[in-house]
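Lecture notes, continued. The same structure-token format from the folding unit now serves as the input rather than the output. Read the line below as a description of shape only.
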């Protein structure tokens, strides 16, 4: 009897293994896979960098417009023939629509950064909707066009929010892979050094046009990025440049590779903060 029992357990184990190999992943796992991979059939909606074949990068500036600092930055961008992307706060747009109008007129991209900079990931859908809709309307009033990009304050947003915001507003959700922590006001030299150290082709660089030290850092930062061969485009232009990634990328032995939110793999940069303003 003992021998028969052993044979029975062996047979049952083999059947269980066979069924397990043929089983499909759970819906939750399939959903997670779609979240982090971009394919021609199902483009990604969240980007913190983009895989490109040429040294293009996107400079982004949050929390403006500032009545004093944003015009200075616009003058500097014009002098360097650089197009940037501004993620604006709706309250500030309502107060200084002429600055946002100028930025759009000069070829810069305007994105939605909420009305009053709350933590969207901790809010009700209706409250989030109100924050985005008010800002969307303010941008449309100032520029004549509605934004197609949204950056959540602090980078805080849930996976479910990403999906319904994308479906309802049509926004791509834009994060970043280069964070100089300029919101901590470390000084222009530190801001410049951090950007130069971390930026690589396809980077989305986070900065803020409401801090004097950031504006002071930009002339030499732009000069040195240009000296390194980088070229500047808006975020939407960078996304349109996305190149197909090989099925099995082969990193250098000394590099570790991690996929970004759009599904592109890059050597892992130094840690960045999701709490940047």
């Amino acid at each position: 009897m003992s021998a028969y029992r052993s044979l029975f357990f062996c047979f049952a184990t083999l059947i269980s293994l066979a069924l397990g190999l043929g089983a499909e992943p759970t819906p939750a796992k399939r959903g997670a896979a779609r979240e982090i991979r971009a394919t021609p059939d199902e483009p990604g909606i969240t980007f913190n960098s983009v895989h490109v074949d040429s040294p293009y990068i996107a400079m982004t500036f949050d929390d403006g417009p500032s009545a004093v600092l944003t015009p200075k930055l616009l003058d500097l961008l014009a002098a360097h023939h650089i197009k940037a992307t501004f993620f604006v706060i709706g309250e500030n747009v309502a107060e200084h629509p002429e600055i946002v109008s100028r930025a759009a007129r000069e070829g810069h991209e305007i994105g939605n950064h909420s009305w009053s900079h709350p933590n969207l990931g901790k809010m009700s859908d209706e409250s989030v909707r109100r924050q985005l809709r008010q800002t969307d309307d303010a941008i449309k009033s100032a520029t004549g066009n509605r934004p197609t990009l949204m950056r959540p304050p602090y980078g805080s947003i849930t996976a479910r929010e990403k999906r319904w915001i994308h479906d309802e507003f049509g926004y791509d959700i834009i994060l970043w892979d280069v964070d100089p922590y300029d919101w901590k006001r470390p000084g222009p030299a530190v801001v410049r050094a951090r950007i130069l150290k971390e930026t690589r082709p396809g980077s989305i660089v986070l900065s803020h046009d409401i801090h004097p030290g950031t504006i002071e850092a930009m002339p030499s930062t732009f000069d040195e990025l240009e000296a390194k061969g980088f070229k500047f485009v808006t975020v939407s232009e960078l996304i349109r440049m996305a190149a197909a990634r090989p099925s099995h990328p082969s990193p250098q032995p000394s590099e570790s590779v991690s996929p970004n939110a759009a599904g592109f793999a890059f050597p892992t940069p130094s840690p960045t903060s999701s709490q940047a303003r």
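Point for the exam: The beta strands are 46-47, 56-62, 85-88, 109-112, 149-150, 172-174, 204-208, 231-232, 257-259, 265-267.
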